Sequence to fold (245 residues):
Amino acid sequence: MKRKVNLAIVGISQRGSGLLKLLLEMDDVNIVGVCDLYEDRTAAAAKAVVEAGRPAPVATNDYRRLLDLKKLDAVLTPSSWTSHAQILLDTMESGRYAATEVGGATSIQQCWDLVRTSERTGMPCMMLENCCYGRPEMTVLKMIKEGLFGECVHAEGGYRHDLRQEICSGKENRHYRLANYTCRTGDVYTTHELGPIAKYFNINRGNRMVTLCSVASKSVGLNEWSRQHRGPMTKSPAAVSIWVM
Ligand SMILES: NC(=O)c1ccc[n+]([C@@H]2O[C@H](COP(=O)([O-])OP(=O)(O)OC[C@H]3O[C@@H](n4cnc5c(N)ncnc54)[C@H](O)[C@@H]3O)[C@@H](O)[C@H]2O)c1
Fold:
């Protein structure tokens, strides 16, 4: 009989609900738990599971409750960037496989915490960098491996989406990125391009990163969009309440 994976999902908004839909099409996956900080999102996810003809999952806004489930193999977290690391660490500590959407960590300390916890607990922790498996990226990988470009010495890539509306509408959409772009700078979303490039250069497959540097330009684009669509800022920056999730 085909072994089924008992999976819980933590963070079920835009990305999480898309992944849930895909997972519900897989007959070797049981969704045993769903969790979001927002009750309406948790309820919608539980409803989607039942409507797919599956048993009702445990639905909660505290993911730690899901880690108490006896029948749980793995946790997938498509939650906000700053929440991934703790959820992954707790998942591995509970003896379950951990998987995260892009980000996974927001500091070097968190990266080391993930590595050391995985080594100590023996539980794998995977970042789901889908761009590593995209058709164009894999085509280029094959071409590089076949030597079509000779020896590659330089590559560049970027996360080239126009997300100004999504980011600036973060309060209305209850979307986490606004808080990140308000409080953090540098390249906060590197892996869609870095993942495939790392494969092209055999990083961690005999080659390795020696230095890493992150820079950012002035946030002209977001400020301009905001002024055009929301009008001029009426409060001084110090008085703007920072909403972090
Ligand atoms: N791989 C891709 O191509 C791709 C595309 C889109 C988004 N993403 C990633 O997916 C993740 C989610 O993106 P989104 O657009 O759905 O964001 P979103 O802000 O709409 O949703 C995040 C959800 O996580 C929930 N959450 C946060 N902390 C939580 C916690 N501790 N416990 C339970 N729930 C928690 C929030 O309540 C929210 O509903 C991000 O990491 C994003 O980078 C990846």
Summary: Residues 108-121 form the longest helix (14 residues). The chain has two domains: 5-128, 133-239. Residues 10-11, 13-16, 35-38, 41, 63, 78-81, 83, 101-103, 130, 175-176, 245 surround nicotinamide-adenine-dinucleotide (CB under 6 Å).
